[in-house]
Each structure stands twice: as C-alpha cells, then as structure tokens.
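Below is how a single chain appears once it has passed through the pipeline. First comes the sequence as given, then the structure the pipeline wrote out for it. We keep one example in the README because the format questions we get most often are answered faster by looking than by reading.
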Amino acid sequence: MKRATIIALAALSLLGCGKPTSPTNGATPSGKTGTEQPATPPPNYVAATAENKPAENVSGVVNPFLTEQLRLFIREKGRTPESFTELARARLDSVPRPPEGMKWVIDATSKEVKAVPAQ
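Resulting structure:
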C-alpha cells in the first residue's frame, strides 16, 4: 500500500512539471520575434559533439536513437530543427558522445542524425 501511494505521488508530481508557455505570436518576452535576434553560439556540450546547423546530403553513419528523436521532433513541431541545440533541448536529457574523432550532424535531406568526421 505504501509503495503504491509513493508511486502515485511521484506520478502526480511529474505531471505538474512543465515548461512555461511562450507567447503564441512568436514573440519573445522582449516583444521581438525570433528572426530579429542574432544567433547565439551553441552551448559547449553541443559544440564539442555536434555541428549545430543541419546540412544537406551528409555522408556518415546513422545513429538510430538520435534519428528517432529527430523524427519525433519533426512530427511534434512539423519542421526540422533549426539547430542541433534546438533538438537537444527539446528531446534529449544529454547528448550521447559520438565515436572518437566524429561529430553528430542533422541531415536535413534524409531526416537522420549521422556521425561524420570532425573537422
């Protein structure tokens, strides 16, 4: 009985957690739209493991987990993420480490995340 109560309380507390809602007109809290603000550099955890901007026709090794997260993002938002940072913030608790000497890249053509040689 105790265990069921604890599980129920934990589930209810998780249901109450959520991201604050943003304005529906695309404006930021400052009143500007996202296109008016300069692009911010990706966080260190993304810059170290991924190319931030999606690319076209990338040749590399497909990562099934990251590709599934990308496709879920596309299904939910109806578009490809503008950056790997956006995908990571929306769908990942942490960014998996790519194979040695590689970086993750979103292939916008095939809608896959691939490991490609780091440059």
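Helices lie at 2-16, 44-47, 64-77, 84-91.

See the next section for the split statistics.
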